[in-house]
Structures are given as C-alpha cells and as structure tokens.
Amino acid sequence: SEQVSLENLQISHQGSQSADLLRVEAGVVYLRQCVLQGARWDAQSKTGGSGLYLLNLAQATVVQTAFIKNAHSGVQVADHARLQAQQCRFEQNRYGVLATDKAYADLRECEFRQNHDGVRARNHARVDTLRNRAEENLHSGIVYADSTTGFVIENACLRNKWGLWVDETAKPLLQHNHCKDNHLMDCYDGRA
C-alpha cells in the first residue's frame, strides 16, 4: 500500500469553504512535528472540519503533532481505519480525537485541552488511552459511548465539565486514572 511521510509542516485552511485538511482513504501516513489547524465544517452537509480524517482501511502514525482549532475534530478515525498518536496536542477542536464505526485508536502521552470533548469513542470503536492528559475541555475529557472498548490507563482528567464518562453499554478497562476538579463529575461509570 501507499506510504506518505510528512515532517515539520504546518497545514492550515484558508477561505470559508468546508474542508478536511488531510483526508486519507487508503494506505499509510506518518506525521511528525506537524501542525494541522483551521479545518472548516459545513453543518448543513455535515462535511469537512477534521485536521486529519482517516477512513476505510487507512492507517496513520502521528508523533509530536498539534491539531488546533479544527471545527469538527483534530483527528477523526472512521470505518476500519487505525490511528497511533504519541505525544500529540489537541486544542480547541470540537473533538480532539473522534473514533467511530469499527475504527481503532491508540493514544499515548497526548494532551487534550479546551476541546468540546478531548476523546470520544462511539459505535464499536476500540480506543486505547495511556498516560494522556485531558484538561479544561468544555464537555468531557474522555468518553466511551455505545459498544466501545479499549483500555483507559493512567490518564489525567482535570477541570473538564465531566472527567471520564463511560456509557452503560461500553466496555473499556479502567485502571489507575486520575480524575480531579471536574465541574460536574470526575468519573461516571454507567456500568456500576
């Protein structure tokens, strides 16, 4: 499959039309020390708005990269796509990372700050989170909804509206997370 590597680049949107900054439908992309910012969302057509949009069987490895002020998501992972992100920063997006369908995301040592939701897993996605920091997000730091799975280990959820949220039907493994000073609730586990 095709492989593309991008390093030390800033990719930003100009103009008012909706757009994803980088849309990957097949192959493998590597991002290192990049900045993706300003993707535009069209609410009527529900298109665009992602800094990085992975779909189908696309794969991405993202290291030390920032996703800032993207109207929909810093990274959206859909279908059967796969994301590995390490030491990345997600700021002021609607979703820092949104994983849907049967996608997989592995998030390690990333920072999620001032998004609507830092991390949101939906449908049947698997999201593994290890040693991330979700801080000052307007809604939730980390959310596992629907029939999502994954491990949630040693994450810090601080000063969000809700820290860590697990729906009744979700099945993540929770271990040694630190949730503190969230406005409405530090940790909600609907399975309890």
How would you briefly describe this protein structure?
The chain is mainly beta and 192 residues long.
What brief labels describe this structure?
mainly beta, 0% helix, 192 residues, eight-stranded parallel sheet, single chain
Describe the structure.
With 192 residues, the chain is an all-beta fold. It has no helices and 26 strands. It has strands at residues 3-7, 10-12, 22-24, 28-32, 35-37, 41-42, 47-48, 50-54, 59-63, 66-68, 73-77, 82-86, 89-91, 95-99, 104-108, 111-113, 117-121, 126-130, 133-135, 140-144, 149-153, 156-158, 162-166, 171-175, 178-180, 185-189. It has an 8-stranded parallel sheet with strand order 1-4-9-12-15-18-21-24, with no helix packed on it. It has an 8-stranded parallel sheet with strand order 2-5-10-13-16-19-22-25, with no helix packed on it. An 8-stranded parallel sheet has the order 3-8-11-14-17-20-23-26, with no helix packed on it. The radius of gyration is 15 Å and the shape is globular. The model has no long low-confidence stretch (mean pLDDT 96).
